[in-house]
Design brief:
By secondary structure, this protein is α/β, with parallel strands linked by helices. It is 36% helix and 20% strand. It is built from 17 helices and 26 strands. Strand 2, helix 1 and strand 3 form a beta-alpha-beta unit. The chain is globular, with a radius of gyration of 27 Å.
C-alpha cells in the first residue's frame, strides 16, 4: 500500500496524562479494533478518542485512524495522542476506501468497530455491543442520539420501489405508516427493544472480525453514502445477522461531510448504483421515481444538481469522487493477453489451422504492439501468456519486446483467474491500493487513451467490471463504429483483497460476480476482422476513419474514407439488416446460455465450427 503509511505507536504525548487509559499497539490480539476515517475532523476527533478511552476500561482496544487528505491539523492532533495508529491515505479516497485501508491495518482483533469521527460513545456502549455479538449477532449497531439527546431514526429497511415511491410522495408525513411504505424505521417501539434489522446508518457499528473478512472489502464505488447499505446487504447474504442494541448509545453530531448540492445529488445517484448492483430489474423504475421526486423540488438549489444527474448519467462524473495525490502509485494496472495458450472449445479448431500462428504474430506486430506503445499513460505492465511448446521462431519475434520492457512473458498450458491474480501481484509488485486488469486479444488494438481512461475511472471510485462501450471494427478496407456494452476488452477494477481479475468469467458474464459498468465516450478499442477470427462479421455503422486516426496511430492510415453515397447506403440498407441479425443472434445466444450453460454452449459452438 504505497499511499498509506502506518505510523508506529509512540510514547505518551505531552498532553496525555500519566496513568490515563492507553490503547493497544499494533502487535498482539485485541478484543476490539476501532477504525475511524477522518477528513478535516480536527474539531471533533479528540472528543471521539476521549470517549473511547472512557468506555474501554476493561478491554484491549486498538485504534486506527485513516486520514483522507485533511487540510486542517487532524493528522497532527492524532499523532500528538501518541497511542493512535495513524495512516495517511494519500488523498480523499472516500469513506469505503478509508475503511478498507484501516481494515488492512487492524491486526489481530476479535471484532472491528467502525466509527465516524463526529461520534462520541456514551458509557457502556462497547460492553453492550460486544454482549450482543456474544449472543450470536454478526454485527451490532447502537442507538444514536443528537447533541441535544434526541433519538435519531437510524434504522433502515432494505430499499424497495414501493418504499422509494412512498418516501418520495410522503416524506416525513404519516410517520407511523406501514413498513412497506418507508425505508426508514420510525416506530418508537422499534427503538426501545433489541431486534434483528436490515441495516442502519453507518456512523457506528461493531462487526465480528471473521464475518467482516468473509463479507470482504467495502465497495469503493460508493464514495460516500450507500456504502453501509451495501455492506449490510452482503453481510446478510453471507448468513450473518445485524442487530440493533438500544443499551448501546452514541452521540452523533453529523458534522462530518456537511450538506452541499453535490452531496445531496450523490445520495440520490448512489441509491441508483445500489439498485443496479443488488436489484437490477428495479434500477430503471427507481431512477424514474427519484427523477419525479426531484422534479417536484427543482426550485430548491440543493436539488437541482441531483435532477441534472438523474437526467444525464454523464454528470455523475462531476459529483464528489476519489481524489489522490498519487494516482499513478495508488493503482497497479496490468494488460493481459493470451497469445497461444492451448485452447478448448471452438477456438481450438481455429488455432489448429495451418498458418494460424504466423498470421497471428503478424497481426500482433501490426496492430496490438503499436497500440500499446502509443498509450498516453505509461503507468502499466503488459503480461503475455505463451504455450510452453511455442516454436523458437515465435520466441525470437517476441524477445526484442521483452528486452525493451514492453511486455512480460509467462509460459503455461492453462491459466485460471486465480493464477492470473497471483501473476498480477508478481508482475506489478502489488504495491498499489488498487489492481486493474484489462484483457487484450493478440489481434486487436487499444485507443491511445485506453489506459488513461481506466486509471481515471479507478481514481473516480469506479469498481468492478468496466467496459469502454464504444469501439471500431476494421474489415475489408472499411471501418465501422460499434457500441458493445460488454465487449471482450473487459477490465476489472478492484482492491488487492482477493482479486478476481478480468478473467474471472466470460466477458459477457462478469456481471454475475461483480458490479458492471459501461463507460461512454470515443472509441476505446479496435477489432480486426480477418479470416482466422472466431467471430468474423461486420457490426456497427460505417464511419470515416479520418476522425479516429489520432486515437489509433498507424492502424487506420491505409483505410480510405467512404464516399457520401456509401455512407447513405450503409445507413439505410446494410446497417438495419446487420442490426436485425445481431438482435436475433444475441437473443439466441442468451437462450442457449440459459438452457445449455457455458459448457454446453461451448460444445455446441465446437460442433458447428468443426463442421465447416
Amino acid at each position: 500500500m504505497d499511499t498509506a503509511e502506518a505510523r508506529p505507536v509512540g510514547p505518551l504525548a505531552s498532553g496525555q496524562e500519566q496513568g490515563e487509559r492507553q490503547f493497544s499497539g499494533p502487535d498482539g490480539e485485541v478484543d476490539v479494533a476501532a477504525v475511524v476515517v477522518t477528513y478535516n475532523s480536527a474539531e471533533m476527533i479528540e472528543g471521539l478518542v476521549e470517549s473511547l478511552r472512557r468506555d474501554a476500561t476493561d478491554i484491549a482496544l486498538r485504534v486506527v485512524a485513516v486520514d483522507n487528505g485533511s487540510t486542517d491539523d487532524t493528522v497532527e492532533r492524532l499523532r500528538r495522542l501518541g497511542d493512535v495508529i495513524v495512516i495517511e491515505s494519500g488523498g480523499n479516497l472516500g469513506y469505503a476506501a478509508g475503511i478498507n485501508i484501516g481494515m488492512r491495518s487492524v491486526g489481530a482483533a476479535r471484532s472491528v468497530l467502525i466509527l465516524n469521527p463526529d461520534v462520541r460513545l456514551l458509557p457502556g456502549c462497547l460492553a453492550a455491543l460486544r454482549g450482543r455479538l456474544g449472543r450470536g449477532a454478526a454485527c451490532a449497531v447502537p442507538a444514536i442520539v443528537d447533541a441535544e439527546g434526541h433519538l435519531s431514526h437510524s434504522l433502515r429497511r432494505e430499499p424497495s420501489l414501493t418504499a422509494a415511491a412512498a418516501d418520495a410522495v410522503l416524506g416525513r408525513l404519516w410517520p407511523t405508516r406501514p413498513s412497506l411504505l418507508s425505508e426508514t424505521v420510525r416506530s418508537p417501539a422499534a427503538y426501545r427493544r433489541p431486534h434483528r434489522i436490515d441495516w442502519a446508518t453507518g456512523a457506528a457499528l461493531l462487526v465480528d472480525r471473521r464475518t467482516a473478512d468473509r463479507v470482504g472489502p467495502w465497495d469503493e464505488r460508493f464514495f460516500l453514502y450507500s456504502e453501509e447499505t451495501d455492506f449490510f446487504r452482503r453481510l446478510r447474504d453471507c448468513g450473518g445477522e445485524v442487530w440493533y442494541e438500544p443499551e448501546a448509545r452514541v452521540v452523533h453530531s453529523e458534522a462530518g461531510s456537511g450538506r452541499t448540492p453535490e452531496l445531496v445529488a450523490l445520495t440520490i445517484v448512489n441509491a441508483v448504483r445500489y439498485a443496479e448492483k443488488h436489484h437490477r430489474r428495479t434500477a430503471l423504475p427507481l431512477r424514474g421515481i427519484l427523477l419525479l421526486h426531484e422534479l417536484r423540488r427543482w426550485r430548491d438549489p440543493d436539488h437541482r444538481v441531483a435532477l441534472s444527474a438523474l437526467l444525464s448519467r454523464r454528470r455523475w462524473e462531476d459529483l464528489p469522487h476519489t481524489t489522490s495525490g498519487d494516482a499513478q502509485g495508488a493503482i497497479d494496472l496490468l494488460l493481459v493477453t493470451r497469445f497461444n495458450l492451448p485452447s478448448r472449445g471452438p477456438e481450438s479448431l481455429i488455432r489448429a489451422q495451418e498458418g494460424w500462428l504466423q498470421s497471428r504474430i503478424e497481426l500482433f506486430e501490426r496492430y496490438t504492439v503499436p497500440s500499446v506503445r502509443s498509450q498516453t499513460d505509461e503507468g502499466f505492465r503488459w503480461l503475455v501468456y505463451l504455450d510452453p511448446q511455442s516454436p523458437q521462431w515465435l520466441l525470437d519475434r517476441l524477445n526484442p519486446l521483452v528486452r525493451q520492457g514492453l511486455l512480460t512473458v509467462r509460459y503455461s498450458e492453462e491459466v485460471s483467474w486465480q493464477d492470473l491474480a497471483a501473476d498480477a501481484r508478481d508482475v506489478t509488485g502489488g504495491r498499489g491500493r488498487l489492481l486493474v486488469t484489462a484483457n487484450l486479444d493478440n489481434d486487436d488494438a487499444l485507443a491511445a487513451d485506453f489506459v488513461a481512461r481506466l486509471r481515471d475511472a479507478a481514481s473516480r471510485g469506479l469498481r468492478g467490471a468496466v467496459y469502454l462501450a464504444d469501439g471500431l471494427i476494421r474489415v475489408d478496407g472499411r471501418v465501422y463504429r460499434w457500441r458493445d456494452p460488454d465487449n471482450a476488452f473487459c477490465s476489472v477494477i478492484e482492491t488487492w483483497d482477493a482479486p478476481m481479475t478480468a478473467w474471472r468469467d466470460w466477458h459477457i458474464l462478469l456481471h454475475r460476480h461483480m458490479a458492471a459498468t459501461a463507460l461512454e465516450g470515443p472509441p476505446g478499442w479496435l477489432q480486426i476482422v480477418h479470416g482466422r477470427n472466431v467471430s468474423n462479421r461486420i457490426r456497427g455503422r460505417l464511419v470515416d476513419p479520418l476522425a479516429f486516426r489520432r486515437l489509433f496511430p498507424g492502424a487506420l492510415d491505409d483505410v480510405a474514407s467512404p464516399s457520401g453515397r456509401e455512407l447513405i447506403a450503409d445507413a439505410l440498407v446494410a446497417r438495419p439488416a446487420r442490426e436485425g441479425r445481431e438482435m436475433v443472434r444475441g437473443a439466441a445466444k442468451r437462450v442457449l446460455l440459459m438452457v445449455l450453460g457455458k459448457n454446453g454452449l461451448e460444445r455446441l459452438k465446437e460442433r458447428c465450427h468443426g463442421g465447416r
